Structure to design on (110 residues):
């Protein structure tokens, strides 16, 4: 089976792409750097994946995202990086080679 590198990116990049910004300049700079990374990774042969959790999903976010990452790995992907603004984004199983926890001034999920 071939192995394809993948990098899981936080959903705040989606909001940045659509033009929505947080009110905190420091956080906006974090998101901007993440957006630069998002644009750079494909040129390095790394696929970018967003794991989004809909309101119809049951269970905890940690379990949901762990299962989604496990499915990626079973499909032949190797997770080389995982960025999240909540601990639930980067905890659990199949988290990848490196995890990056970014701050989020708007909300915190405990």
């Amino acid at each position: 089976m071939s192995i394809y590198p993948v990098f899981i990116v936080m959903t705040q990049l989606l909001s940045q792409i659509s033009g929505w910004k947080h009110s905190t300049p420091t956080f906006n700079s974090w998101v901007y750097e993440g957006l630069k990374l998002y644009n750079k990774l494909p040129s390095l042969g790394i696929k970018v994946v967003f794991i989004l959790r809909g309101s119809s999903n049951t269970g905890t976010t940690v379990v949901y995202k762990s299962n989604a990452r496990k499915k990626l790995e079973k499909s032949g992907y190797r997770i080389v990086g995982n960025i999240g603004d909540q601990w639930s984004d980067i905890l659990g199983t199949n988290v990848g080679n490196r995890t990056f926890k970014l701050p989020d001034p708007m909300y915190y999920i405990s």
The mean pLDDT is 78. The chain is about 35% helix and 15% strand.
